[in-house]
Write a structure and sequence with these properties.
188 residues; alpha+beta; 6-stranded antiparallel β-sheet; 3 helices; 23% helix
Length: 188
């Protein structure tokens, strides 16, 4: 005599839930081993002890923590990221570092250049005005494409401005504005 169908469905459902929880637990465990420690994530100058120093006032410690909580310069990138491999699934890997060059040039003075390189530790973004006829930023980025954006706009006279993004010596994008107040975005 076989088991009732309802019993088989319950056992299957419980087994599925246990399998999902086991996968989530393994993922969290692997992430905790690969990621920065809690002391590293707090940023520079963070103390390893959970208790404030005797000279610090109780109100000063939370205020200092709030001040650094959203400071991008106080945070560091994790040593590992979850990246999609060639085969289906995900793997923990050290993010690849690349040397990137963001540039803009023109025959006349460039009024303004905007850029975004989110994984750059020293130049994540900027809005630069009155840069002359050439502008260049050299930095390091991590991860996979897309690494950066450069925004340019020509003036009233329509003199073309050329933006470019070069990654590890290879030009990823080179574009020029066209006409008065022409705009262009290089993505690479």
């Amino acid at each position: 005599m076989g088991r009732p169908r309802r019993y088989v469905k319950r056992v299957s459902a419980v087994a599925a839930v246990v399998a999902v929880l086991a996968c989530v637990g393994l993922f969290v465990h692997a992430y905790q081993q690969a990621g920065p420690s809690h002391g590293d994530a707090a940023g520079p100058g963070a103390s390893d002890s959970a208790t404030p120093s005797p000279s610090a006032s109780p109100a000063a410690a939370p205020a200092a923590a709030r001040a650094n909580a959203f400071d991008p310069n106080a945070l560091s990138l994790p040593p590992y990221t979850i990246t999609p491999p060639a085969a289906p699934g995900f793997a923990f890997a050290t993010p690849a570092e690349h040397r990137i060059v963001l540039a803009a040039s023109s025959r006349h003075a460039i009024g303004r250049v905007g850029y975004l390189a989110p994984t750059s530790p020293d130049h994540p973004s900027g809005d630069v005005k009155h840069v002359g006829r050439q502008w260049v930023v050299h930095t390091t980025v991590t991860g996979s494409p897309y690494y950066a954006l450069v925004f340019v706009q020509a003036g009233a006279d329509g003199t073309p401005i050329t933006c470019s993004i070069t990654l590890d010596g290879k030009v990823l994008s080179r574009k020029s504005t066209s006409g008065a107040y022409g705009r262009q975005v290089c993505v690479g």
